[in-house]
Each structure stands twice: as structure tokens, then as C-alpha cells.
Write a structure and sequence with these properties.
With 358 residues, the protein is an alpha+beta fold. The protein has helices at residues 4-14, 59-63, 68-96, 140-146, 195-199, 227-234, 284-297, 344-357, and strands at residues 18-23, 45-52, 101-104, 151-152, 158-159, 167-174, 205-215, 218-225, 237-239, 258-260. A 4-stranded antiparallel sheet has the order 1-2-6-3, with helices on both faces. Strands 4-5 form a two-stranded antiparallel ribbon. A two-stranded antiparallel ribbon has the order 7-8. A hairpin with a 2-residue loop joins β7 (205-215) and β8.
């Protein structure tokens, strides 16, 4: 028998960190392009699940030494591997109980609207009057809120009482009628400390302009987010009105208005991981600054013996020559792409020093 209790027990056994259920009526008034009932008209419930991002996956970005782990393990690995397996296995159990269920571990890359809710022209069209254009985009952070799993912070990040912003969300839409959980009413998570605004490297979160929506009778508000600016800063770029020389263009030869930012150590933007993971800034404001603030207030359930920030935050001065480790062995006859300085001699001397040391 499929019940709320059995669904939650199974979800946690499969790997979800927290589970909540929202009745479909909580989506009344949702934009057509974001309404789960456009996908499953007879849906009765939405099951929301929170999956933690390991705090350790942010350590390498905090130290400025290992960036790919958050994009691979904390972002793409969860989004495209771990969460799909959990929601698919839970859907199997629900379907074995006789109810249709749809697993969703991430948005469809074919969605008709962008991250700001605008419908793309000449992308797709409704197949009949009253239906959404394919693909529908279910707002996962709003779904987590409507399933009672936490709050939406000023940064627009979803905050769970367990992990704050350090989580990702998976959902299941089902025809099974399950007992819903109340909307989150626990200890206040976002206290408008504005650390997200101050620490966002791209200044993508507006300090005063906000967006207000009504969700299941509750007014929810977050700061206005400039998604285009966020995208550039997120990947380690710095937008400028000036023409950027070719050897300084961060996002390829055609990005003549984007240069390397002080929050990236890479000469050019690294390739995407799992299709979209390119988190060079590592959520400097919306994720890390928010997490540090929440941990300092001791409001999160997932607690650590040591604080996260233990050293002064780093930045890169791209006008100076790089200072490599003394034991670095450089490739022969290679030049620094910024200074033009040859590296071969340094490489040879390092090898000599190492040989003498042996």
C-alpha cells in the first residue's frame, strides 16, 4: 500500500536526505508553463526530495585549488546521476502500487521558457488550445517550498533546515493521493543578512528590488536576480564595456566583452561538466556566504566540528606573473599566455634542483 509514510521511508532508503509531500492544489494559480498538471492532468501529489551537496565539495574552491569537484560531484553528479536513480526507483515502487508516477531529477533541456520565465520564440508550440508549449518547466525550488521542505532565501536559493543552500532538489509527480506536509514553519532560515548580495562577485542579486509571489496562500519574496550577469560571473568571467584583447577573452574568441575575473584562476573558462556544471565562482555569495552565515547562527541541523572559512578569501591579480610551486615541473619551451615569459628554463632548473636533492 502506497502511503505518505511508506513513500518517505523508501525515499530515504534510496538516498534522499529529506522528503516532503505537497498536494497538487498548492499549485493553483501557477503559470501554465510551470504547472505539473500540464504534464499529468490527474496528478494528486508532488513528492519533493532534498539531496545534500557535500560541504567538502566546496573546499577546493574555497582554497582556490580544486574547482571541478563541485561542478562534477556537487552539481552534475547529483543532478544527472544520483537524483535520477533515487526518483526512478521510488517511481517504480509507486507504479507497483498501481499509481502513475513521473520522475524528475532536473529540468528538461528542451523547456520552452528560460530561467526568467520568458517563452522562447520559434522553439515549440502548444499541441492543442489550453495546453502548455513543450517542454513544461517545473520550478524545483518552488516545488520544494510547496512540499514543506524549507524556505526560499533572498538569493532565490532554496534553503533547507538541514543544509541551508547546500542542496539540490528532485521531485515526483504522481496520481497517488498522499497526505501532504505543512508548509515549512520552523526556525527562520533567511534573516535578510544580505551576505548573498555583498559576496556575489557579479553583483547579480539586487539589494533593493525584489520579486514577490504567492505560493499556497503564503507570500514569498526574493531579490531580483540578473540571470545573464549571474551566468558570466558563475563561470568565472567579468563583463566589461571595453573591447577585450583576444588573449584575455575568457569565454572564447567571440566573447570580446568578457575578460578573466579575479575569482577565476583559469586562463579560459573550463569546459562544462555534465552539460551545465561550470561553477568557477562556486556560489561565492548565494551558496558559500549564505552557508557561512547560517552556520554561524547555528540554525542548520547538519553541523561540523570546524568552521568552513579558515583562511582569508583569495583573489587573482591577472596583471602579475603567476607564482607556481617551487617543485612544479613545467613543459618545455612553453610561454605564459599573459606575460609571454618562457617556462622551459625554469623547468630545467627545477629538474636540476630535484636531481641534486636526490
Amino acid at each position: 500500500m502506497i502511503t505518505s509514510a511508506s513513500v518517505k521511508k523508501l525515499a530515504k532508503s534510496f538516498g534522499a536526505d529529506a522528503v516532503g509531500i505537497g498536494n497538487i492544489e498548492r499549485w493553483n494559480g501557477a503559470p501554465t508553463q510551470m504547472d505539473p498538471r500540464q504534464i499529468m492532468p490527474e496528478a494528486k501529489s508532488v513528492i519533493g526530495m532534498v539531496f545534500r551537496v557535500m560541504r567538502g565539495s566546496l573546499r577546493g574552491i574555497e582554497e582556490g585549488t580544486f574547482f571541478s569537484n563541485y561542478s562534477a560531484m556537487g552539481y552534475g553528479g547529483l543532478t544527472y546521476l544520483y537524483i535520477p536513480m533515487v526518483v526512478m526507483n521510488l517511481c517504480k515502487a509507486i507504479e507497483d502500487g498501481g499509481y502513475e508516477a513521473l520522475p524528475m531529477g532536473h529540468q528538461s533541456d528542451w523547456r520552452a521558457i528560460d530561467n526568467e520565465g520568458y517563452l522562447g520564440l520559434q522553439h515549440s508550440r502548444p499541441v492543442a488550445p489550453g495546453r502548455a508549449a513543450p517542454d513544461v518547466m517545473i520550478h524545483l525550488r518552488i516545488a520544494a517550498y510547496l512540499c514543506g521542505l524549507g524556505e526560499i532565501g533572498y538569493s532565490k536559493m532554496f534553503l533547507s533546515p538541514q543544509f541551508g543552500p547546500r542542496n539540490r532538489v528532485g521531485i515526483i509527480i504522481t496520481e497517488a493521493k498522499l497526505k501532504p506536509d505543512p508548509i515549512y514553519n520552523g526556525p527562520k532560515l533567511c534573516n535578510r543578512c544580505m551576505a548573498c548580495v555583498r559576496e556575489c562577485p557579479g553583483n547579480a542579486i539586487h539589494a533593493r528590488k525584489t520579486v514577490k509571489v504567492k505560493l499556497a496562500g503564503h507570500e514569498v519574496e526574493w531579490g531580483e536576480l540578473d540571470c545573464k550577469v549571474c551566468d558570466i560571473a558563475f563561470s568565472g568571467g567579468l563583463a566589461t564595456n571595453k573591447h577585450v584583447p583576444k588573449n584575455e577573452r575568457y569565454r572564447g574568441p567571440d566573447s570580446d566583452h568578457i575578460k578573466r575575473a579575479p575569482w577565476t584562476p583559469f586562463y579560459q573558462k573550463p569546459r562544462n561538466l555534465y552539460n551545465s556544471g561550470q561553477a568557477v565562482c562556486g556560489g561565492r555569495g548565494c551558496l558559500r556566504a549564505c552557508m557561512i552565515s547560517l552556520e554561524k547562527r547555528h540554525v542548520l541541523k547538519n553541523r561540523f566540528k570546524e568552521k568552513f572559512r579558515r583562511r582569508k578569501p583569495w583573489s587573482v591579480d591577472w596583471s602579475t606573473s603567476p607564482d607556481y610551486p617551487a617543485d612544479a615541473v613545467m613543459g618545455k619551451n612553453r610561454s605564459d599566455p599573459v606575460t609571454g615569459e618562457k617556462r622551459g628554463n625554469a623547468s630545467k632548473s627545477r629538474k636540476s634542483e630535484n636531481k641534486e636533492a636526490d
